[in-house]
Design goal:
One of its GO terms (molecular function) is hydrolase activity. Pfam families: Isochorismatase. It is a single chain. With 182 residues, the chain is α/β, with parallel strands linked by helices. Strand 4, helix 3 and strand 5 form a beta-alpha-beta unit. The longest helix has 18 residues. It is globular, with a radius of gyration of 15 Å.
Length: 182
């Protein structure tokens, strides 16, 4: 078995334009994520799907039992691919992800999905801190505008700031074309 795993984070229906919490560029990011997933399947790398569910029913999206919480068909799991449900931005927190990766002998993780500034950043940092060689495919990730201290930060700036921070010390940050041509 390969020593690499692709971790597909939160590419769920609520992030699409018809969902409850749409992200800028989600369709393009998901199309790129699908290319990364296809490359992984062709290379016999493990593909792990992580899906977020809020345990608080007052949260505005990712509510259990709704269509919005389901993984989008563009990146749908196939066969016996692992699906991990999480309740926090960090895909490792209170899940079996780390144990699963260790048991499978995974040394490198490749991360795609959403949101760049939350779950991608948290998961990539944790993966690196746990000693996994970490790759983030930046154009296979999406986010949205955020607000801070009365100012709106455009999604493109949020994404760029987070990818540059990850590239500085936590991950190899690459484009889809570069990744799939390796």
């Amino acid at each position: 078995m390969s020593k690499r795993a692709i971790i597909v984070v939160d590419l769920q229906n609520d992030y699409w334009p018809s969902g409850k919490f749409s992200l800028d560029g989600i369709e393009e990011a998901a199309a790129n994520a699908a290319r990364v997933i296809k490359s992984a399947r062709d290379s016999r790398d493990e593909v792990i799907h992580v899906r977020h569910e809020f345990t608080d029913p007052t949260m505005p999206f990712f509510n259990p039992g709704t269509n919005g919480v389901e993984i989008n068909p563009v990146v749908q799991p196939i066969g016996d691919e692992t699906i991990i449900t999480k309740n926090y931005p960090n895909s490792f927190k209170e899940t079996g992800l780390k144990q699963h990766l260790v048991e499978q002998g995974v040394a490198e993780v490749v991360i795609v999905g959403a949101m760049s500034h939350m779950c991608i950043a948290a998961t990539a940092r944790a993966a690196s801190d746990f000693g996994f060689k970490t790759v983030v495919v930046h154009d296979a990730c999406a986010t949205r505008d955020v607000e801070f201290n009365g100012a709106t930060v455009p999604a493109a700036d949020v994404h760029t700031a987070n990818m540059s921070a990850l590239a500085f010390a936590y991950a190899d940050v690459v484009a889809t074309d570069e990744y799939v041509s390796r």
